[in-house]
Design a protein that fits this description.
The chain is α+β, with helices and mostly antiparallel strands and about 325 residues long. The chain has 2 domains: about 5-35, no CATH class; about 50-325, Metallo-beta-lactamase, Chain A (4-Layer Sandwich), CATH 3.60.15. It has helices at about 5-10, 10-20, 35, 80-90, 130-135, 155-160, 180-185, 190-195, 195-210, 265, 280-295; strands at about 50-55, 55-60, 65-70, 95-100, 105, 110-115, 145-150, 175-180, 215-220, 225, 230-235, 240-250, 250-255, 300, 310-315, 320-325. It has a 7-stranded mixed β-sheet with strand order 1-2-5-6-7-8-9. Strands 10-11-12-13-14-15-16 form a 7-stranded mixed β-sheet. A hairpin with a 2-residue loop joins β10 (about 225) and β11 (about 230-235). About 40% of the residues are buried. The protein binds zinc ion. The site of zinc ion has 6 residues, from α6.
Length: about 325
């Protein structure tokens, strides 16, 4: 809507340009000198998106996107040409995988809660590590965060707990971690028995949580661990991998964490196991259980590696499922 007083100020081609969204493409109008001088900005707008579940305000806060070559091992139990066919079916380039990273901020009315912390600070022109900048765009200072909830101990979820000089990124926050996840990664025996390729992950967990024992609260499953946020056993991806139900009044939302990795592959093919699934069979079983529930209850969900703003719905589709993004809404 354009109010009449403003409209009366606009004349000729300028008025048409303001009113018709595609007026610039009409050759009869031409381009004014001012339009011709505009340079492309070359930068993305802030990656924040707000919505509500009952009285809880949620903000999807994007940490960035990573694109990497598709390796034979990326899907443990599918052939490369099957994976490429799935990428093509999802209108993604073949031979590469793109994963997004989307921590979730919740204002529960009393507590500011962040679920997962992204890849942490990065040097140079990295495409990830955008969490703190995007929190800034959302008007949130690191010191404002009361509680950080961690879903599991992979680096893309915990590394944002530290700043680039090793300080606590959220200096006032209590840090809540799944008790079974802590028990697994902090166990010296598990570390010594781990395959060589996993040793780095154990070392990283120890780096991030060093000297934090007094700040960390270990939580069990099926407990309300923060106002309106209940922990759910979603083990398989990691031994203590956790999802959440966010509930307020009659409204509910399921935060699936890494129950699936990038949806273009694993939503239509829920039995495919991403290489990061530490117990692939159990992860696939959890995926089917969760997605059957989401489809039956028509419950809105959030997926950490889903396309920003990373929220929508799951329906059954043949032998797999289909993701339907939630509609962008300018009102909260
Ligand atoms: Zn992840």
């Amino acid at each position: 809507m354009i109010d009449t007083s403003r409209r009366s100020l606009l004349t000729g081609a300028a008025a048409l340009g303001a009113v018709l969204p595609f007026a610039g493409a009409l050759s009869t109008l031409g381009a004014s000198p001012a339009e011709a001088a505009l340079q492309p900005v070359g930068q993305q707008v802030p990656g924040v998106y707000r919505y509500k579940v009952g009285s809880i305000e949620l903000t999807a806060v994007n940490d960035g996107v990573r694109t990497f070559p598709l390796a034979e091992a990326f899907v443990k139990n599918a052939k490369l040409d099957e994976v490429n066919a799935a990428l093509e079916a999802g209108f993604m380039p073949k031979g590469q995988v793109t994963a997004q990273f989307n921590p979730l901020l919740l204002n529960t009315g009393g507590k500011l809660v962040l679920i997962d912390t992204g890849n942490g600070p990065q040097a140079g022109n990295a495409t990830v590590g955008k969490l703190s900048a995007n929190l800034g765009w959302a008007g949130v200072k690191p010191a404002d965060v009361d509680i950080v909830i961690i879903s599991h101990f992979h680096g893309d979820h915990i590394n944002g707990l530290r700043t680039d000089d090793g300080m606590l990124a959220f200096p006032n926050a209590e840090i809540l971690v799944p008790a079974p996840e802590w028990a697994f990664w902090m166990d010296e025996g598990e570390m010594s028995r781990a395959p060589e390729g996993m040793k780095g992950a154990f070392t990283n967990v120890r780096r991030v949580f060093k000297d934090l024992d007094s700040r960390v609260r270990r939580y069990e499953w099926d407990k309300e661990i923060a106002p309106g946020i209940t922990s759910v056993n979603a083990a398989g991806h990691t031994p203590g991998h956790t999802a959440y139900v966010v509930a307020s009044g009659d409204a509910k939302l399921f935060v699936q964490s890494d129950t699936t990795n990038t949806p273009v592959l694993f939503v239509p093919h829920p039995d495919w196991q991403v290489q990061y699934d530490m117990d692939g069979a159990k992860a696939a079983e959890t995926r089917r259980k969760v997605y059957d529930m989401l489809a039956a209850e028509r419950m809105q969900m959030v997926g950490y590696h889903y396309p920003f703003p990373a929220t929508g719905f799951i329906s059954k589709d043949g032998a797999g499922y289909r993701f339907v993004p939630a509609m962008w809404n300018p009102a909260i």
